[in-house]
Records
---
Amino acid sequence: MATLREGARMASALGRRQLPLRTVPSCASRFASTQADKPSSPSDALADLDAASSFTTPTPDAKEIEAFNSAEKNQSRNKQLPGNRYQYHPPKYYRGPLHPVQMPASSDPTARDFVPGPFSFPRLKHTYDNTIAPDLMTLTYTHVPPGTVAPESNKGVLREWDESSPYHKNRPRRGPRGGGSSRLGILERDIAWHNIPEIEAVTINSYAPLSGQNKEYLHVARAVVQAISGGFPEVTKVKHGVVQWGVRKGDKAGAKVTLKGGAAYDFVDKLVTLVLPKIKDWEGINASTGDDAGNLAFGLRPAWMAFFPEIEFNYDMYPARLMPGCDIFIKTTGTSDRQARLLMQALGFPFYGKATH
């Protein structure tokens, strides 16, 4: 019964289905080629192609494939000369701008002083580029009319050439007699668009005079400097011994580290924003500090070191009795202490006292 029922269902489905009638146009037989219905061989299909075509080239046999694979293996072998002898090595020393072999730039990965990065842009550096540098150039702008001859301020200190040699022509004046460069000093250049003062390096020095007798002082000093700077410090040693103080030449005296680039700006930003505002009895930087070359320095007491965030959150790790202070030297590109103070004030450092120069 199931079979009969299934057969009846199929018959009714076929009855209801409308099959489309396919009509062939009458002109189809008129345009159809008599050769189209005949089977064509592969040689006839490629007859119209060029004789030099790659379609007519026979397939390679097994011997040719094996020879090709063996040649490819031989070419892929490492036949280069040993790299440690013949590869490029940058020169170890700089021998002047006229030497035929020049050292690559520090941004070149082949350079000896190459340091990868920067991987972040310091916030203080961004503020300097967008706000501080344009303000410094605007505040210190001095208009000089075209054709103005600058006065010679060091005419009595510098000596003229006697013109006894043709090499004296167009040469600058000679230095002071006897090598007294201290009388001349560094000439202060006016601030222009190409020499706006900025931070070049920051040196953190922690002096621990008892490091020669007790190594724990040295360990704590190195740990503190490394924590607040993020760089690996080097151990400093005593250059000159003093018998009255019990200091011998060659004894370990502390640790120091020098920060440059983005690390220097990050450290200065941390000082201005987090550390120095917490010191209630800190008056600021003495205005008379400086070396007449645009470099300023100030110190932090051992009790103030706990205000650094790297030490504050884990203060118990550093023994308070062994905690050292530190001296911070900020090296700028300014050519005088006046320009260095102007930059530091713009960055947020306060000054007190009377500036001597």
Note: The beta strands are 199-207, 234-237, 252-260, 285-286, 295-300, 326-332, 351-352.
---
Amino acid sequence: MALPVSIRLPLPPKPLVSDSLALLSEYLPSPFPLLGAIDRSIPIPIKQLVAEAPLNRFFAEAIADGEFDDFEGRRIRLEINGGHPGITFGFWAGRLRVLDGPGEATIRGSLLAFKTLAERRQDPDQLFFQRRLVVEGDTELGLGLKNLLDSLEWDFKLPKLHLF
């Protein structure tokens, strides 16, 4: 006895809907305002435990090659629009460290802009010129980090964002 086979054809793209959602997710504040409260309630040692090892493994080759040496003792904050959540990190004694508090430079943007930057789907300079990513504070430090990340080789895809 044959089992019924279900065939699902992909639905045709709906550009108006997808473009509208992309625009909303890019320019509206984060639809998850509770993330900031959750972020503030997590102690810094837990954040360090979760984030430092993967960051240092991911950038191990660049760290070993001295690519991060210009950032020794400096603090940089990456922040989602609206002021949170965010992460401040620095480079001390050959390791990337998650820190508490503000950075000397802050790079701020939407979650989608950071995802686009990480996946290299758009030139980083365009993201800054279009004001999708903004550097505040020590702009030389922020742009130095942007240039360093742009010069490194990596290839990975982040999971699809479901903001709405």
Note: Residues 1-7 have pLDDT under 50 and may be disordered.
